[in-house]
């Protein structure tokens, strides 16, 4: 031997030549490297650069929590859904069956409690076996844990392409693993390492860690694993595919019995326990995890809305990809505003509204409920499912209740709203009252023509559109029935839902722009464009377009419910909220929403007066036709207010109504035109849920849906009396001018409308 040479490295060189000769350096090279590690770690000597290479390797391992299951829960803590990229539920070592701890040590590393992270005996044994033509590894459990931690850290950073699997490791990878294992043994106890390993190790694409594996393969907790079950799982980690007890039961049984042999050999079980376990048939009881909002136990579409709220919130990462990674791996607990006491009845009601959709067209039905004064979304339901086979024929991923972009991001999820029809009329009423005009003032609802040069009084945008039968492709303003072309109070015009009365009210305003201001104050916005544009500005509804006074644009039900919540709360507008708390895997609060409200968004007295008028809708107006199958009016036992709405084709219908403590938007109608030659015709002469309708109005189907649901929901929240409005906003009947009603004075100049308005609500009097 040459002077100054370390015999260990001379041996290693000789062994290296043998390995090269045998052509198995990929296996044995890393084993031989292991022989150098203890000497390098203990002596610090250097020979031929090998030890220097080892010393330059990192010696600290950052152990971060591996990917865990994120839970979305309701306000009472009941589950909604789980989200994960790796199904893993960490448990403490004392929550694992002793069987599984003994099994994994016996088969993977029986000297686990004796070595210091790298096992010299194991390396020599594996080297000898491989030189004889076998194939045996020498990684200790500590080394395996190190590898898993490194790979998990890479995945958590989105660097999946850098993950190195066992069969791909080179000598450098193995040396790094060994050095980190030695260092880790000085930082963590053996039990901590074993616990970490059993919580991180891969068993199956559906099961990461022992708890998830126990649940997936046997439907039991890890603490309850029997000896045969524990041995099966311990054998599985060597090759999760080859030893899968579901797909390869014979191979899995042989591997299980090999584990049992090792347990007997190393004194972990006695002969009888061994023989009984070996003679136990392989039996699995699969409990496949279901992740994602499509498998939510309740409120699929609310769940999806919550997910998009997180995905679009910079508080959870600088970009959408990083937020998605945090959600799918972070083990978060997301507590929402959903109230299961309301969600259950809401879902049952929308499911029954259209029945089986008569097999011809998938009528959409939806309910969304907001708590006034907080903005909390407490229920959100629609008569469809996200996946086939979930109970209804109507399958769609689109959320009927929300904006197309789910509030402020680029991820599509919402339908984008529907035409609200006459449920928009309270916006003009709000503008009227805000100018101090009383509800009992008479306006000229006989007037039907508002031509191109009609002298609207406006201080902002020009009024767009016209109603004038003398102009090509235009018509005079229409009501649904002929007897309503006459002078009437503004109040009657609202509760009977008369189009010409709404236009007469708009014409009687001191400033037409007050309608836009009212819509903005109520949070009205375009459902198709979403809540915000690319500059972060709210895309307001264009109330200068005449058709929009009667609901000709698309607005999401949640927007409508939240606007009416401003009336219910005496003028306080609150931004809709769905998430109260976001907790990390350690139980620390890292986010959530709080009520964001603006008091006096509209004047309190104005809100009270609007509610006072909308109460009449249900007692003597269009809402009086909210009836049950026997023709009896459905009434709540509490003070309530509402507005019906129907679009021009009778195929999108609404009731938006409220008590003091809950506001609900109820929708029934067309949500898709796919496969329909003429969806405009669907509102007339149709059968819905076994009943024929010559035409569909808001009170007919959306109305009972609202009423039946609110009968169950209203008692659970504040259902007291509404506050009375001041008398000056009620007033008495006012005389009309010589033209009948309150004709506007000439404006500063003629309007230059550019477009014909979208067909309006017909002025329903069901």
UniProtKB/TrEMBL annotation:
Q: Give start and end of each Glycosyl transferase family domain.
A: 77-263
Reactions that this protein is recorded to catalyse: [GlcNAc-(1->4)-Mur2Ac(oyl-L-Ala-gamma-D-Glu-L-Lys-D-Ala-D-Ala)](n)-di-trans,octa-cis-undecaprenyl diphosphate + beta-D-GlcNAc-(1->4)-Mur2Ac(oyl-L-Ala-gamma-D-Glu-L-Lys-D-Ala-D-Ala)-di-trans,octa-cis-undecaprenyl diphosphate = [GlcNAc-(1->4)-Mur2Ac(oyl-L-Ala-gamma-D-Glu-L-Lys-D-Ala-D-Ala)](n+1)-di-trans,octa-cis-undecaprenyl diphosphate + di-trans,octa-cis-undecaprenyl diphosphate + H(+); Preferential cleavage: (Ac)2-L-Lys-D-Ala-|-D-Ala. Also transpeptidation of peptidyl-alanyl moieties that are N-acyl substituents of D-alanine
Which keywords fit this entry according to its UniProt record?
Carboxypeptidase, Glycosyltransferase, Hydrolase, Membrane, Multifunctional enzyme, Protease, Transferase, Transmembrane, Transmembrane helix
User: Residue ranges of region Disordered?
Assistant: 725-766
Composition-biased stretches, type Low complexity, lie in: 739-751
Q: What is this protein called?
A: Transglycosylase domain-containing protein
A Pfam family assignment: Transpeptidase
């Amino acid at each position: 031997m040459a002077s100054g040479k370390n015999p260990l490295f001379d041996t290693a060189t000789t062994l290296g030549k043998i390995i090269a000769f045998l052509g198995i350096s990929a296996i044995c090279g890393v084993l031989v490297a292991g022989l150098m590690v203890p000497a390098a770690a203990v002596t610090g000597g250097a020979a031929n650069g090998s030890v220097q290479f080892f010393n330059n390797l990192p010696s600290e391992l950052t152990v971060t929590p591996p990917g865990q299951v994120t839970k979305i829960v309701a306000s009472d803590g009941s589950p909604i859904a789980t989200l994960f990229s790796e199904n893993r539920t960490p448990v403490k070592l004392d929550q694992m069956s002793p069987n599984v701890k003994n099994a994994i040590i016996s088969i993977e590393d029986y000297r686990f409690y004796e070595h210091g992270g790298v096992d010299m005996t194991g390396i020599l044994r594996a080297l000898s076996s491989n030189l004889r033509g076998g194939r045996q590894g020498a990684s200790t459990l500590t080394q395996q844990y190190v590898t898993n931690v490194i790979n998990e850290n890479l995945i958590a950073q989105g660097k999946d392409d850098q993950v190195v699997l066992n069969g791909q490791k080179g000598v450098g990878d193995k040396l790094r693993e060994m050095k980190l294992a030695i260092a880790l043994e000085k930082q963590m106890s053996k039990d901590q390492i074993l616990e970490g390993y059993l919580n991180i190790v891969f068993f199956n694409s559906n099961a990461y860690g022992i708890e998830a594996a126990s649940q997936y393969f046997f439907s039991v907790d890890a603490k309850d694993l029997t000896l045969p079950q524990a041995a099966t799982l311990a054998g599985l980690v060597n090759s999760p595919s080859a030893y899968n007890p579901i797909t390869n039961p014979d191979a899995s049984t042989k591997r299980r019995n090999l584990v049992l042999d090792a347990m007997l050999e190393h004194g972990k079980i006695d002969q009888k326990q061994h023989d009984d376990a070996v003679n136990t048939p392989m039996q699995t009881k699969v409990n496949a995890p279901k992740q994602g909002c499509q498998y939510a136990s309740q409120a699929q579409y609310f769940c999806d809305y919550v997910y998009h709220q997180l995905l679009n919130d910079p508080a959870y990462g600088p970009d959408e990809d990083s937020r998605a990674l945090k959600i799918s791996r972070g083990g978060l607990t997301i507590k929402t505003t959903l109230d299961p006491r309301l969600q259950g009845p809401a879902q049952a009601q929308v499911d029954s509204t259209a029945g089986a959709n008569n097999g011809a067209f998938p009528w959409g039905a939806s309910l969304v409920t907001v708590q006034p004064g907080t903005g909390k979304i407490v229920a959100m339901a629609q008569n469809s499912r996200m996946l086939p086979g979930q109970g209804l024929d109507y399958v769609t991923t689109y959320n009927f209740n929300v904006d197309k972009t789910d509030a402020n991001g680029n991820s599509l999820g919402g339908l984008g709203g529907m035409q609200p029809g006459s449920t928009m009329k309270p916006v003009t009423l709000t503008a009227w009252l805000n100018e101090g005009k009383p509800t009992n003032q008479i306006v000229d609802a006989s007037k039907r023509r508002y031509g191109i040069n009609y002298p609207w009084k406006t201080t902002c945008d020009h009024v767009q559109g016209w109603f004038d039968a003398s102009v090509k492709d235009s018509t005079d303003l229409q009501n649904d029935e002929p007897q309503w072309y006459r002078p009437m109070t503004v109040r009657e015009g609202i509760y009977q839902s008369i189009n010409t009365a709404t236009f007469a009210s708009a014409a009687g305003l001191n400033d037409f722009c007050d309608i836009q201001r009212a819509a903005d104050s109520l949070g009205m916005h375009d459902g198709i464009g979403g809540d915000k544009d690319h500059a972060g500005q709210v895309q307001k509804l264009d109330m200068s377009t005449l058709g929009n006074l009667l609901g000709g644009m698309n607005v999401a039900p949640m927007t409508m419910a939240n606007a009416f919540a401003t009336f219910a709360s005496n003028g306080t507008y609150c931004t809709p909220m769905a998430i109260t708390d976001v907790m990390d895997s350690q139980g620390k609060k890292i986010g959530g929403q709080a009520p964001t409200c603006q008091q006096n968004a509209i004047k309190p007295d104005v809100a009270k007066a609007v509610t006072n008028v909308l109460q009449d809708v249900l007692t003597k107006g269009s809402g009086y036709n909210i009836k049950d199958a026997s023709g009896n009016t459905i009434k709540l036992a509490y003070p309530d207010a509402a507005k019906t709405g129907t679009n021009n084709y009778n195929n999108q219908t609404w009731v938006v109504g409220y008590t003091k403590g809950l506001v609900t938007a109820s929708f029934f109608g067309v949500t898709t035109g796919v496969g329909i030659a003429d969806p405009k015709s669907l509102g007339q002469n149709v059968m819905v849920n076994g009943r024929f309708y010559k035409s569909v109005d808001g009170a007919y189907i959306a109305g009972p849906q609202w009423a039946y649901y609110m009968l169950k929901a209203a008692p659970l929240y504040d259902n007291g009396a509404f506050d009375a409005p001041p008398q000056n906003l009620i007033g008495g009947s006012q005389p009309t001018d010589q033209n009948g009603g309150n004709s506007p004075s000439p404006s500063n100049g003629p309007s230059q409308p550019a477009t014909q308005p979208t067909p309006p609500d017909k002025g329903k009097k069901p």
